[in-house]
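hey so i finally got around to running the thing on that chain from the lab meeting. sorry it took forever, my laptop kept dying and i had to restart like 3 times. anyway pasting the input first so we r on the same page abt which one it is
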Amino acid sequence: MRFWIGVTDNNWYKFLADLRPDEVNFWQPSAMPPFTNALMGLPFLFKLKRPYNHIAGGGFFVTYSSLPLNLAWEVFGPKNGCASLDELRNMISKLTSDKRSDGQIGCTVLANPFFFDEPMWIPDLPGWASSIVRGKMYDTKGSEGMSIWNDVQARLRLHQPENIQTDRSPIVADQVEKYGSPVMVRPRLGQSSFRVLVTDAYQRRCAITGERTLLALEAAHIIPYSEEGLHDVRNGLLLRADFHRLFDAGLVSVSPDLRIKISRRIKEEWFNGQVYYRLDNHPLSVLPAHPSMRPDPDCLDWHYRNKFQA
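ok and heres what got predicted. didnt touch it at all, straight out
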């Protein structure tokens, strides 16, 4: 089993350890991913900087994306490890040679984070060099990786967070496929993870119109989360903001055969809507490339039958 140990800002860690969120954005000022080809569920451990140099917690990899700074704050808010957008800008500017604080940042999305109490922090990592700046991938097939992972497992057994569903047994490979690949542990996704996954699944384009202006696009739940809909990419559509509002109101829907449906009530109540009616009964403009990320027909059927104002 592989796992990543990432060099972690101490203030970022302390802020989030106090907050105890359901997910976090382990960001970096450059839009370069810390690793590639990782499976969802890969353990990601937090190694603090000097004077600590200990593993103090971790989370489980969901996805990686690059986002404009303003949008990263909109999506994650305090889950970025600070209290305000201005504070995030200041943190980033200190880490860039040109003091840049805006533009794209790299976002490694982690679900189900856990934070050890200080007496449980893990010191003296085998195989760790002082020259490592970003992090290192370990494998439990090697003695160094196995030693570290045994220490992590022992701490999780003693004080296992409620949001990690491992039945108090060691975290092992989950044989059930999710999004086309087996995962190490099944992360419980939050709203921020859902938004990033849906945004990238639809290639950052509105499913209905094909619009590419990222700041105008929003991840919509097909079955609302308030009505037991899941934060699952198959329960999502990436929509332009106006279509998102119309979809939530039941004035727009998508049939199980992936055709756009526009309610007559738009014209009846507002004497308008020509821009919308031109799309009525047309197929969706954009779908995820991977079939496992496409909208669930049962979710679409639920929305069409229960929400759409036909």
